[in-house]
Design goal:
The protein has 13 helices and 14 strands. It has 406 residues and is an alpha/beta fold. The protein has two domains: 139 residues, Aspartate Aminotransferase, domain 1 (Alpha-Beta Complex); 227 residues, Type I PLP-dependent aspartate aminotransferase-like (Major domain) (Aspartate Aminotransferase, domain 2, 3-Layer(aba) Sandwich), CATH 3.40.640. Helix 4 runs parallel beside helix 5. The chain is globular, with a radius of gyration of 21 Å. Keywords: Pyridoxal phosphate, Transferase. Pfam families: Aminotran_1_2. InterPro entries: Aminotransferase_I/II_large, NHTrfase_class1_PyrdxlP-BS, PyrdxlP-dep_Trfase, PyrdxlP-dep_Trfase_major, PyrdxlP-dep_Trfase_small. This is Pyridoxal phosphate-dependent transferase.
Length: 406
């Protein structure tokens, strides 16, 4: 039996969402409907109706093994925005039900017992827990808040072993909202190339950068090395988590072939309905509207959270995120981090606000004490109402929250 650690962030949200009046635990921008995909300026007012009609008349076969050609063509276009990058063939893309399954397939396919992986940290738990469950050794490549959550490239070099097979990064980063610029990506690729190591880049929030210019590219847009894999989905940056479509993309056909083989054991093909709707969502004009909408929402809301942090500077701090609608806020009292699990528990009980405790959901209990992941992708008025409740909790209940003494 494979031992898999509890998936803490999902379990936390699952078991507490029912009691929340305000959720700041979600990590995506405010969800959209299928109707929202129709442009207000579109001459074709029956676009969605036509899409549904097409679905209803489509034979419900398994479909192509790698995913529909129309959808993979739209996904390939996402990696063509960088003029310096070579066009990506649809044969270098395979669809999956969400980015989590995409990550699962890549990690399951490329790692085995005795292999070694280096994983950026903090990050989404799946990216380091799953390799461990497979039997691989994992080294955490730790970023530090005092350095703006930057990664030390010399440390990466020191972590490499003879059996290192994979370097795993996340850009933008969950939970900090930090971003790896092109220059850092280029250096990571240079280091990986020197040792023939594959890089997996979880880009589920790409290209949602609200506070950095120029925005970092996808790793597939940084040329010169084929052993690169990018995963993503419609869930986060595109506000369409209900369309369960993600993908794996790589310029190395051998990696894609291996992932297709693993995918066949798990699901054969993706839902034809989901793929058809995803193709509609990824049409160029629609993509532009979705990213513009979510970038503006995140840009506006990150200022709201910054005002909250400034107002409570004696009790909390963060490195302001530059990408994704999330940030990592540390709460302290008298210079000591509060018990973030207890803080989140009492905040939910007293004020109905759901946050995600960092030491439980992004660390081992000793890392990230006092930190919470705060999602600010909701509509601004909902975010403001939630932060008003957090403010009231700090004014009335905060002194009773225990702190860590060591």
């Amino acid at each position: 039996m494979v031992k898999i650690d509890p998936f803490e962030v999902d379990h936390w949200i699952l078991t507490r969402s029912a009691g929340a009046k305000h959720s700041l635990a979600h990590s995506y921008c405010s969800a959209l409907s299928i109707n929202d995909l129709v442009s207000p300026q579109s001459d074709n007012t029956n676009e969605v109706e036509n899409a549904w009609s097409s679905i209803l008349s489509k034979p419900m076969e398994y479909g192509p093994m790698k995913g529909s050609s129309a959808l993979r063509s739209r996904i390939a276009d996402l990696y063509s925005s960088d003029a310096a990058a070579e066009p990506l063939s649809i044969e270098n893309i395979v669809t999956t039900p969400g980015a989590s399954l995409a990550n699962f397939l890549v990690l399951f396919t490329l790692l085995g017992p005795g292999d070694h992986a280096i994983v950026q940290y903090p990050t989404y738990q799946q990216l380091y827990s799953l390799p461990t469950s497979i039997g691989a050794e994992v080294s955490l490549w730790k970023a530090h808040e005092e350095d703006g959550w930057r990664l030390d490239l010399d440390e990466l070099k020191e972590l490499i072993r003879p059996n290192t097979k994979l370097i795993v990064i996340n850009n933008p980063v969950n939970p900090t909202g930090a971003a790896l610029p092109r220059s850092t990506l280029e250096q990571i690729i240079q280091i990986a190339r020197a040792h023939s190591i594959t890089i997996l880049s979880d880009e589920v929030y790409h290209p949602l950068y609200h506070s950095v210019s120029p925005p970092p590219p996808s790793i597939l847009s940084v040329s010169g090395y084929d052993k690169l894999v990018a995963t993503s989905s419609l869930s986060k940056a595109f506000s369409l988590a209900g369309i369960r479509v993600g993908w794996i993309a790589s310029r190395d056909p051998a990696i894609i072939d291996l992932c297709v083989n693993s995918r066949s054991y798990a699901l054969i093909t993706l839902s034809q309905v989901d793929e058809h709707l995803a193709e509609l969502a990824l049409r160029p004009a629609t993509v532009q509207r979705l990213i513009e909408r979510n970038t503006e929402l995140a840009r506006r809301n990150v200022r709201v959270v910054q005002e909250f942090v400034d107002r409570h500077a004696a009790n909390c701090r963060w490195v302001a995120p530059v990408g994704a609608p999330i940030g990592f806020v540390q709460f302290v009292r008298d210079g000591k981090p509060v018990d973030d699990v207890e803080f989140c528990t009492r905040l939910l009980e007293k004020r109905g606000v759901l946050l995600v405790p960092g030491s439980k959901c992004f660390g081992d209990g000793t890392d990230f004490r006092g930190y919470v992941r705060l999602g600010f992708g909701e509509e601004t008025e909902h975010l403001e109402a939630a932060l008003d409740e957090v403010h009231a909790f700090i004014e009335e209940e905060y002194d009773d929250v225990p702190v860590f003494s060591d």
